[in-house]
Structure formats: C-alpha cells, structure tokens
Design a protein that fits this description.
Helix content is 74%, strand content 0%. The chain has 115 residues and is mostly helical. It has two domains: 28 residues; 84 residues. The longest helix is centred in the last third of the chain and has 19 residues. It is globular. It starts with a helix and ends in a 6-residue tail after the last helix.
Length: 115
C-alpha cells in the first residue's frame, strides 16, 4: 500500500523539522542499534568488573558505572533507560541487538576474530 508508506515518509520529513523528534523515535528508539550495541557491550564489561563487590555496594557501583558509560557515549541516561525498557518490551529487537553485543564482546576478547 502506497498511502501508509507516504504517510510515514511525511511524518519522518516533518519530524526532521524538530530536533527532539526523529524517525528513529517514531520506531521506538532514541539511539541507533549500533550505538546501543556499543553501550551495552561497555555496560557488560562494567558489570563484570564489579561482580565480586559485596551485594549492598554492587547496585550503587553499577548505577555509577551506568551513568559514566552513558556519558562516555554522550548519551542521556534517561533516554538510554527508555531505549532499554523499549527493548525489553520488544524481544525480537533485543535479541538482534544482543547478538551483535555478544559478537562485539567476543571480538574484544579475541581481536583476531574481527579479521
């Protein structure tokens, strides 16, 4: 059907007039899948770094690291959290992204895999 495609195109075209709205947001995410793969890989590394911390400290340490990783990637923490919540509600997209996260982590662990 041509009408819905044109309508979506017009919505996206109109959305570009406003910097806080994008076609990506219309699809449910503030950040690209590539950006989310990078930040999720870093969050997994951060979580592994604190895995042996005592339970009361682990959550607060992770929260600090979560904010730091978001800042390193120049992401707004609330928008990142919104994207993570969105992905939890859309397991097919979450699985697609996590396949790439796992691949990224494997490549970091063994740089020869990237070749």
């Amino acid at each position: 059907m041509v009408f819905p495609q044109r309508l979506f195109g017009l919505i996206c075209l109109g959305a570009t007039s406003f910097p806080w709205i994008s076609c990506q947001e219309a699809a449910g995410l503030h950040y690209s899948e590539a950006q989310l793969v990078e930040v999720l890989a870093d969050l997994h590394v951060a979580r592994s770094a604190i895995q042996n911390a005592p339970p009361p400290d682990k959550d607060s340490l992770y929260e600090v690291l979560h904010r730091q990783v978001a800042a390193i990637h120049q992401m707004d923490v609330q928008r990142l959290n919104d994207d993570l919540e969105y992905l939890m509600d859309h397991p097919e997209r979450l699985e697609k992204i996590y396949d790439k996260v796992i691949q990224s982590l494997e490549e970091q662990a063994d740089p020869e895999m990237a070749n």
